[in-house]
Write a structure and sequence with these properties.
Blueprint (H helix, E strand, L loop, with lengths): L2 E2 L2 H20 L16 E5 L2 E9 L4 E4 L3 E10 L5 E4 L3 E15 L8 E6 L8 E6 L5 E12 L3 E4 L3 E25 L1 E6 L8 E6 L15 E23 L5 E6 L5
Parallel strand pairs: 1-15
Antiparallel strand pairs: 2-13, 3-12, 4-12, 5-12, 6-11, 7-10, 7-15, 8-9, 12-15, 13-14, 15-16
Length: about 260
């Protein structure tokens, strides 16, 4: 089915058709009625327009860029014996603020108010942020959430007569992407056509379904709509523990499962 990107345009088409059909009827009595098209007015008095099932969908794959790492903590482990030993590092905790900014870049029109929530996907660690989009306003919505990341104590194998440095840090990532604002619109508008010269006052009512081709209607008589938006999220990605042998300068890195509270 076809998808329309502006409900306001459909409403204006409905009003245009209403006035046109009114003057066509008037031609029976006043053959030059169409000459007054720009003089005759439409006075809307109410409507029941609504968007059914408004939702936000991904539009293409998101992009990810890694940002500067966030330092969490450091510890030294010393094995002054003649044998290799497994030593425990201390645990670390850090707080980080995850933020998502959502912008509606193309509304479906200002005549119908609707919002829908969207969860920024980031499958690698299960991290997610939820935001919302307006279908009627080109606004920007920013949500932030403070996350506590825990790095549990690690068992580190330390060679004999060796000191190792244990550093924990949080990798941060910027996730960006585009979205589609989709739904099905329907409803009617009613009002009056005021009298003008010899033309009498008349009431009117039209349905949005009358403003598009019948082949574009869904089975329930609704019309598909499509707006656009984008998002940018900055969030913690992975916890990394880096172990550096101070004798040899050899470095090993370990990825720690994200433990968020």
């Amino acid at each position: 089915k076809a998808s329309y990107d502006n409900v306001d345009t459909l409403i204006e088409k409905g009003r245009y058709n209403t006035k046109y059909n009114y003057l066509k009827r008037m031609e029976k009595y006043y053959p030059n009625a169409m000459a007054y098209f720009d003089k005759v007015t439409i006075n809307p008095q109410g409507n029941d327009f609504y968007i059914n099932n408004p939702k936000v969908e991904l539009d293409g794959e998101p992009s990810m860029n890694y940002l500067e790492d966030v330092y969490v903590g450091k510890a030294l482990l010393t094995n002054d014996t003649q044998q290799e030993q497994k030593l425990k590092s201390q645990s670390f905790t850090c707080k980080n603020t995850d933020t998502v900014t959502a912008t509606t870049t193309h509304t479906v029109g200002t005549s119908i108010q609707a919002t829908a929530k969207f969860t920024v996907p980031f499958n690698e660690t299960g991290v997610s942020l939820t935001t919302s989009y307006s279908f009627a306003n080109t606004n920007t919505n920013t949500n932030s959430k403070e996350i506590t990341h825990n790095v549990p104590s690690q068992d580190i194998l330390v060679p004999a007569n060796t000191t190792v440095e244990v550093i924990a840090y949080l990798k941060k990532v910027n996730v960006k992407g585009n979205v589609k604002l989709v739904g099905q619109v329907s409803g009617s508008e009613w009002g009056e056509i005021p009298s003008y010269l010899a033309f009498p006052r008349d009431g009117y009512k039209f349905s949005l379904s009358d403003t598009v081709n019948k082949s574009d209607l869904n089975e329930d008589g609704t019309i598909n709509i499509n707006g656009k938006g984008n998002y940018s999220a900055v969030m913690g990605d992975e916890l990394i523990v880096k172990v550096r042998n101070l004798n040899t300068n050899n470095v090993q890195e370990y990825v720690i499962p994200v433990d968020k509270k």
